[in-house]
Amino acid sequence: MNLSFFDQFASPSLLGIPLILISTLFPPLLLPSLNNRWITNRLSTLQSWFIYLITKQLMMPLNKKGHKWALILTSLTILLLTINLLGLLPYTFTPTTQLSMNMALAFPLWLATLLTGLRNQPSTSIGHLLPEGTPTPLIPALVMIETTSLLIRPLALGVRLTANLTAGHLLIQLISTATIVLLPILPTMSILTMMTLLLLTMLEIAVAMIQAYVFVLLLTLYLQENI
Amino acid sequence: GPLSERRLMDVRLGELPAWLATRDISLQGLLEGVQKAWSSYHDKYINVRRGGPAGISMLLAGYCLLSYGWNYQHISKISFLLSL
Lengths: 227, 84
Known about the structure:
Chain A is mainly α. Helices cover 69% and strands 2% of the residues of chain A.
């Protein structure tokens, strides 16, 4: 069997025109824009409530200076959420399966938290490299370990999102192929596989939402240490 | 009324080329047309006081169809069909 399962992740293009820009910009268009009314329609009310919930949840552990990040973090959450959820529809393209896009999101934001910390409170930021209460002989090793863990953060952020979504989409495609192929041969097995597919789809919806949340949550954690 | 002032839905099929000739085909005109189409769809189906899932579902179904169209060239290739 050819390895065409990975073709779904190819960057879409129509007659040589890359469509990735449209696929990335389309999800935010689905969200209703600000209405200058006191009582808006159902959709806008739901959206306002949801955004309030996200912002409150993200900003609670941060101090006053961290609240400057509220806009970018909330809009990042909404973007990732809509992109991930829209990717579960048939034939759609998920931009977050591209490592390039996730690294482009993760690296600058992580670097911004690091530089904020180094600029405003350099000794505290460097002090995070050594946890309290370490025995003295272990200090050099631990500093190196903490530095490595610090430097690997943007890579981990980007790859986590990419790997989770790519693996999910791939699993869905594999199991649905199995279901279709088994249908004429062993109908019972085919029905069992379809049950697995249903459960997997529900898992994927959950994963789509969780991964978006985790991405931004980790960024707030890095911010907490540094701001 | 005269052809240039009618909306797309009121133009008969035979008059379509003539109607297209009267439209403003500059970039700004196209963008204004897209904006107008989106806001009329949005106000009619989504921006209602007690809306339900129907407005957005139609939009998402249209997006699925569009994505199918974008992918058609790839999924209709025989190498793809044989590998399934």
